[in-house]
Design goal:
Layout lengths: L4 E6 L4 H10 L5 E8 L23 E2 L2 H4 L4 E4 L5 H6 L7 E4 L9 H7 L16 E2 L2 E2 L9 E3 L3 H16 L7 E7 L14 H4 L4 E2 L9 H10 L7 E7 L6 E8 L6 H12 L5 E3 L17 E8 L4 E8 L3 H15 L16
Parallel strand pairs: 1-2, 1-4, 2-3, 4-5, 5-8, 9-11, 13-14
Antiparallel strand pairs: 6-7, 9-12, 10-11, 12-15, 14-15
Helix pairs in contact: 1-9, 5-7, 5-8
Length: 349
């Protein structure tokens, strides 16, 4: 028997909002209520999301508590700051899923340092696979009415490295992460670095030198997985693709650990995970193999000469990195099978 879940999507004209609409459309119980945004209010959705033909005639309305009232679920896909403001005006019985950063961090100090302004508080974190001191984050989600969806880079780095941290086979005090990122990660904004003439045929680093806002969230997650002391060097690089993140994460091999123990750590961590796949030895993740799918593809190797474990993780930033995580967490929160409506079938090449 199907239940009916009435979902409002705020930020419906943006990249994440569009992907939430696409991914949630495959859920058998979801029906869409209000589609809200800001400057595009009054427009037909088809003007902003031409790939969503089934919703093309729907009219986008302004993001207000009144327009978002009367739904079982409200998904916020808004710039950070905007989501906390509207979330504070939504009733406690509504399941609110925030794809922005406002409610992810536990530390108000880290929020002030990386984002600035007042910390809006901490919501249950929407990464079911996150290893926690007592099990997994999915254990904390049933029945919750508030979910903070993780950052996309955070998902790639956390899912990549956490098995080694939890098993004690890597030293988390010297983690280096370098990422190749598709441009949709920056949202639908106009800016010179995002012009085709700058982007095509070029790779551009950004937020170099420890300033990226996802750093404290990754540290928070690796601490959850068991790290006592995390030091992270994190460098993203825009590369000419619309979607996808390829994260290469390295950390020193812990003393006395052999190659078999490293592989076993990743195998054990993800043997039962429906959406996180350790590839067969020697096969490396590609972003293309994750596009449109709620999958994280992972490979791990030991660089004996460097004395480091090297992990490569690929995700689609808009699916496993956002909209898929939102739906997966919604399922757990509502007591539905976690995989309902979610696909591991990608689009390639
Ligand atoms: N892009 C990613 O890969 C990704 C991944 C994970 C998380 N996120 C997070 O998801 C959120 C949305 O990102 P995005 O990439 O979808 O950005 P985007 O493409 O720029 O879309 C932003 C959306 O927010 C709406 N909006 C802007 N200001 C608003 C306001 N003051 N009140 C109400 N609505 C407002 C916009 O509406 P109008 O167009 O009508 O003005 C648009 O629908 C951000 O917090 C981002 O950090 C993004």
């Amino acid at each position: 028997m199907h239940m009916s879940i009435r979902v409002a999507v705020s930020g419906a004209s943006g990249y994440v909002g569009g992907e939430v609409l696409r991914v949630f459309s495959a859920h058998p119980d979801v029906e869409f209520g209000a589609l809200t945004a800001h400057s595009s209010a009054g427009d037909a959705l088809g003007a902003h999301q031409p790939h969503l033909r089934h919703l093309a005639e729907r009219v986008v309305v302004e993001t207000t508590p009144e327009n978002l009232a009367g739904h079982d679920v409200v998904v916020l896909a808004l710039p950070h700051g905007a989501s906390a403001e509207i979330a504070a005006q939504l009733p406690p019985e509504t399941l609110v899923i925030d794809c922005g950063a406002d409610h992810r961090l536990e530390s108000a100090q880290a929020w002030a340092e990386y984002y600035g302004g007042d910390h809006a508080g901490t919501w249950p974190y929407g990464m079911p696979e996150l290893i926690t001191p007592t099990g997994h984050q999915r254990d904390a989600l049933p029945g919750t009415k508030r979910i903070a969806v993780p950052g996309c880079n955070v998902t790639a780095v956390t899912l990549g490295l956490q098995p080694g941290v939890a098993a004690g086979v890597v030293d988390p005090s010297d983690v280096v992460a370098v990422l190749a990122n598709g441009y949709s990660g920056a949202g639908k904004k106009l800016a010179v670095p995002y012009l085709a003439s700058e982007a095509l045929g070029s790779a551009q680093p950004y937020a170099v030198g420890g300033s990226h806002r996802h750093i404290p969230e990754i540290v928070q997650n690796l601490t959850s997985a068991g790290a006592a002391d995390v030091r992270l060097s994190f460098t993203p690089t825009l590369v000419p693709m619309a979607r996808g993140i390829l994260a290469t994460v390295t950390a020193p091999l812990a003393t006395g650990v052999n190659v078999e123990a490293v592989r076993a750590a990743w195998e054990d961590a993800y043997a039962d995970e429906p959406f996180v796949h350790l590839l067969p030895e020697g096969q490396w993740p590609t972003t293309a193999a994750t596009l449109g799918a709620n999958t994280a593809l992972i490979q791990v190797a030991v660089d004996g000469k460097a004395g480091r474990v090297v992990v490569v993780a690929a995700i689609d930033n808009l699916v496993k990195g956002t909209a898929g995580a939102a739906l997966q967490s919604m399922n757990v929160a509502l007591g539905l099978p976690e995989t309902t409506g979610l696909t591991t079938i990608g689009v390639a090449p």
